[in-house]
Structure prediction request, 305 residues.
Amino acid sequence: MTNISKTILFFGTEDFSAHTLTALINRGFSIGAIITKPDTRRGRRSSHTQPRVKTIGQAHGIPVWQPTRLRDIADDIQRFDNPIGVLVSYGKIIPQSIIDLFNPGIINLHPSLLPQYRGPSPIESAILAGDTQTGISIMQLSAQMDAGPVYLQEHITLSGRETSPELYDKLGTRGAELLSETLPRIIEGTLSPSPQDEDTATYCQLIKKSDGLIDWTKPAQDIEREIRAYLGWPGSRASIGQLDVIVTAAHVVSSPGLTPGEYTVFGDAIIFGTTHNALCIDRLKPIGKKEMPVQAFLSGYKAIV
Prediction:
């Protein structure tokens, strides 16, 4: 348990941010309020969906604010005595006028080795690029996207087999530990940040639903990486015969002479041609059905395929 009594206002929305919020609560930090995006409606029935951080806050009796505009809570923030902000996957740019209300500012956990992969999809981007390492950066937030000075970084070695959900969980868990360990030193002023090298900065883009449609004219290795990167969302979509499926696992094989997008059923395997090598499907999910190994798929759908 920490002895730091300084009040924290926590900004977070995505599931990734729940790791850090839970760690801060468990270590005894004083959480004055949780700022998260408004609830959403999802699915055919437009069911009400709350951010996980809201559920965690309610379970611990922490006030939860869900402003549409951050300037609407400026007065609420100023009611706290010299608070510090912590932000993890909040999903909105924080204006400088809000950052200035905190001392020593808002501390951000970003799942990349900044200045590499600034932006909204650093985890997916590391998988797509075939990187051999990624990491965690603890930084001071600035009004420019992920451009603030960095307090601390930790490198994480990649095997080349990670899926996006696995890497989100791994970096979320370790990032929560690292930020909780580092925060007392930041509050006490014994750890100072260093500016990023702007000349080496790279940026990643927001992932769109259309990115999940498999383009068989790409090399098989690129498609295999996309399947792992897009496993959580948007999913890698393809058609086998007249059936639409989401491919959830695959591996690269030598091309059996198939043209891009052409496929063959060979024993218990489905192999697609690409522009370089071929892709053997391991697991898939027919739209509206459960995920299954390709052997089970062929057993149930062979006549259609």
